[in-house]
Amino acid sequence: MMIRRASPADAPAMADLLNRIIAIGGTTAHELPFSAAQVDHHYISGESVVCCHLAEDAAGLIGFQAVEHYPGRAGWGDIGSFVDPDRQRSGAGAALFAATEAACRAAGLVAINATIRADNAPGLGYYARRGFVDYAQDPEYALKSGRIVGRISRRFDL
Fold this sequence. Notes:
Elements: E1 2-5, H1 11-24, H2 36-45, E2 49-57, E3 60-69, E4 76-83, H3 92-106, E5 111-117, H4 121-130, E6 133-138, E7 151-157
Parallel strand pairs: 4-5
Antiparallel strand pairs: 1-2, 2-3, 3-4, 5-7, 6-7
Helix pairs in contact: 1-2
């Protein structure tokens, strides 16, 4: 497995993975599909992007992780992590976070926020294993359908 910075050329594969995760449901707050251009802007090349890394091997993209500047909290980043559902527990998440943490420290961030759906047990477990701690909750957070799933915000101090 190789971890590297994402480039705009990676956006189509990243969009395919993200859209597959959205279609499955349950592990992301995103509800609408992304185009490759939207993935590029939101996760790779946009002005608020701090870093974006991807994990890949000979079989292709395993997952990606990106951090954007967190609005309203100077020195904070906001993280998103997306791993192929068929390849979770492969070590990709840990390897991605090692690269992300180093890039966030180099960028001078002081903390990373992760806001996770309260019903996303794998996501909550992943961030807990990385050392993120709860600091806020929104138990009334609802999907577009009106279904209440709640959200938990966790922070990782750099």
